[in-house]
């Protein structure tokens, strides 16, 4: 039987489902920061892909992305593979259901039942099991219908069901929240240390907000809100910041100007090497600092308080402490 105690270390995530359910798309959307319009023509997974990610720059996530074609599904339960796929310290099993294809529901339930039994038997720890009712923007199956149908199997208990859609953004929110519950618990001390460091940095440069962003997935690592900002009432600006947090921070900052130039209605200031990028608003400035290939810092400073030179100097002073907490060496 698996150990039900909490564990630390890399998070092994197993993602399974029938063919074309959208498994690889979910991984790329959540863990690689890809937007929906970038998730086209993704080839079907043959066998098992095992990419690794540093989620939010804090915890290693080892993914087992398992192809859903019939011949692959059968192979996962062979004597030579079942321990590798379902064993070890599997923390999470995501089973993906294509809600746009009602004809596949019976087969999906049967395969899920086998996967559920295998992961509960072979995992060294007690795994969390989630069913993602995916492609919900074009669903022909309701979540409650999938849940009720799956629950007809008495052996399937302790499973949580969620709707999911890369098109409307719910996938990133749902899967991110589920991963965050583990990451925040295991990285609590480091997150608090980062927040404390950012609070001191905000004081030095008069920033209202500072956020560390993981370059691999474009997600927030830690933030500190020192006081309210004009941006809190500007939904368009917040939406644009969310766009930048993914598009800019998952690319090199040398490419940032290409993105900024698409927004001609705003004024931008950039220096020659784009290690620092400044976006000017009416009353505030948004600063992007590249601390490392893996992490960048976003700060918001009121226009009347800003000194770019001072902000850059202070960033250089605080950067070593931030990188030490994140266990990163200076590039």
Describe the structure.
The protein folds into two domains: 11-186, Rossmann fold (3-Layer(aba) Sandwich); 188-325, 2-Layer Sandwich (Beta-Lactamase). Helices cover 35% and strands 24% of the residues. It contains ten helices and 13 strands. It has helices at residues 23-31, 70-75, 82-86, 105-122, 143-150, 170-186, 188-205, 235-247, 256-260, 308-325; strands at residues 11-17, 48-49, 52-55, 59-66, 90-98, 128-134, 159-163, 209-214, 220-225, 267-270, 276-280, 284-292, 295-302. It is elongated and about 65 Å long. The model is unreliable at 246-274 (pLDDT under 50).
- What portion of residues belong to β-strands? 15-25%
Which class of secondary structure composition applies to the elements? alpha/beta
Task: Write the H/E string, N to C.
Answer: EHEEEHHEHEHEHHEEHHEEEEH
Query: Could you give me the name of the CATH homologous superfamily of the largest domain?
Result: P-loop containing nucleotide triphosphate hydrolases
Q: How is the secondary structure organized here?
A:
Blueprint: E1 11-17, H1 23-31, E2 48-49, E3 52-55, E4 59-66, H2 70-75, H3 82-86, E5 90-98, H4 105-122, E6 128-134, H5 143-150, E7 159-163, H6 170-186, H7 188-205, E8 209-214, E9 220-225, H8 235-247, H9 256-260, E10 267-270, E11 276-280, E12 284-292, E13 295-302, H10 308-325
Parallel strand pairs: 1-4, 1-5, 5-6, 6-7
Antiparallel strand pairs: 2-4, 3-4, 8-9, 8-13, 10-11, 11-12, 12-13
């Amino acid at each position: 039987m698996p150990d039900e105690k909490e564990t630390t270390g890399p998070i092994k995530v197993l993602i399974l489902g029938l063919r074309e359910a959208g498994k690889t798309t979910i991984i790329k959307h959540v863990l690689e920061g890809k937007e929906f319009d970038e998730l086209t023509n993704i080839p079907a997974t043959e066998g098992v892909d095992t990419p690794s990610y540093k989620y939010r720059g804090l915890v290693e996530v080892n993914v087992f992305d398992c192809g859903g074609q019939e011949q692959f599904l059968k192979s996962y339960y062979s004597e030579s593979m079942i321990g590798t796929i379902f064993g070890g310290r599997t923390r999470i099993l995501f089973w993906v259901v294509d809600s746009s294809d009602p004809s596949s529901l019976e087969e999906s339930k049967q395969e899920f039942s086998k996967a559920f039994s295998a992961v509960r038997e072979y995992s060294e720890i007690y795994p969390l099991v989630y069913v993602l009712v995916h492609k919900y923007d074009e669903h022909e199956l309701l979540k409650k219908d999938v849940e009720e149908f799956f629950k007809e199997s008495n052996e399937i208990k302790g499973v949580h069901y969620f709707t999911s859609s890369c098109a409307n953004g719910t996938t990133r929110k749902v899967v991110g929240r589920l991963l965050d519950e583990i990451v925040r618990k295991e990285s609590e001390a480091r997150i608090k240390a980062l927040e404390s460091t950012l609070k001191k940095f905000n004081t030095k440069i008069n920033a209202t907000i500072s956020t560390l962003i993981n370059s691999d997935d474009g997600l927030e690592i830690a933030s500190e809100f020192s006081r309210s900002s004009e941006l809190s009432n500007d939904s368009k600006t917040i939406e644009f910041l969310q766009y930048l947090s993914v598009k800019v921070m998952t690319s090199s900052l040398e490419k940032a100007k290409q993105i900024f130039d698409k927004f001609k209605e705003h004024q931008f200031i950039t220096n020659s090497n784009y290690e620092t990028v400044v976006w000017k608003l009416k009353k505030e400035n948004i600063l992007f600092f590249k601390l490392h290939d893996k992490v960048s810092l976003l700060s918001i400073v009121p226009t009347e308080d800003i000194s770019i030179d001072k902000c850059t100097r202070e960033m250089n002073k605080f950067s070593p402490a931030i990188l030490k907490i994140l266990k990163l060496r200076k590039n």
